[in-house]
Amino acid sequence: MGQLLETIKQFFKEDNWSFTESQADTGLSLRFAGKSGQWNCYARVREQEGQFIFYSYAPIDVPKAKYPPIIKYITRANFGLSIGDFEFNFLMGTIQFKTSIDVNGEESKLSFALIKHLVYGNVVTMDKYLPGLELVVKGKATAEQAIAQIEG
User: Fold this and answer.
1) 41-47: long-range contacts (C-beta < 8 A, 24 or more apart)?
2) So what's the pLDDT on residue 108?
3) Binning pLDDT at 50, 70 and 90, where does residue 18 land?
4) N or C: which end of the chain has fewer CB within 10 A?
5) pLDDT at residue 107 in the model
6) C-alpha span between 131 and 36 (Å, rounded)
7) What CA–CA distance (Å, rounded) separates 69 from 142?
8) pLDDT tens column, 21-38
9) How far is the C-alpha of 25 from the C-alpha of 2, rounded, in Å?
10) In whole angstroms, what is the distance from residue 87 CA to residue 96 CA?
11) Non-local CB neighbours of 149 within 8 Å, separated by 6+ positions
């Protein structure tokens, strides 16, 4: 087991997150509950590359008919975000928010403070934009209206 994964596991243990380790790769499956809902998260470690990637998976399945307005919404949401980005899976109709850091190199070290900023920056952003995703998927607002409501 690599040092990055051990550091990340220790952070989540000390921060009272429950998680299960992935058998497929070096990662942890987690669950988060925010003001706007609950969703699954995944902490992925790429030891060789010195990378930590954290994903929040929106608890929404997007029907094909809603792909264009959802793409508009996440494109508008991504504009101006300084850390992380929304991603849309065209094959599955799923949305995720990704934050990541590269700490490759002898002088770089992944601290609990860096992990906390990366993880909580991720889940806070998903929590903020999730209501707009739901409005657009349910046809209760256009992408422009939903973004105006969220960012207004």
Assistant:
1) 41/122, 41/123, 43/8, 43/12, 43/19, 43/119, 45/2, 45/4, 45/5, 45/8, 47/2, 47/3, 47/4, 47/5
2) 59
3) very high
4) C
5) 52
6) 6
7) 7
8) 987 778 999 999 999 999
9) 12
10) 5
11) 131, 132, 135, 141
Q: Which two tokens stand for residue 87?
A: 């991603």
Yes or no: say if 42 and 30 are a contact pair by the CB < 8 Å rule.
Answer: yes
CA distance 70 to 74: 6
Give the orientation angle of helix 67-78 with respect to helix 112-137, to 10 degrees: 140
DSSP lists the bridge partners of residue 89 as 94
Q: Which of 85, 67, 88, 69 is nearest to 77 (CA)?
A: 85
35 token code pair:
């003001």
Q: In what order do the strands lie in the sheet with 38-46?
A: 19-21, 27-33, 38-46, 51-57, 94-102, 85-89
- Give all domains of the chain, ordered by start, each with its CATH number: 3-151 (3.30.1460.10)
What is the secondary structure of 17-80 as a DSSP string?
Answer: --EEE-SSSSEEEEEEE-SS-EEEEEEEEETTTTEEEEEEE-S-PPPGGGHHHHHHHHHHHHTT
Q: Identify residue 16 by its one-letter amino acid code.
A: N
Assigned token pair, 148: 């105006």
Dihedral sign for Cα atoms in the order 91, 52, 73, 94: positive
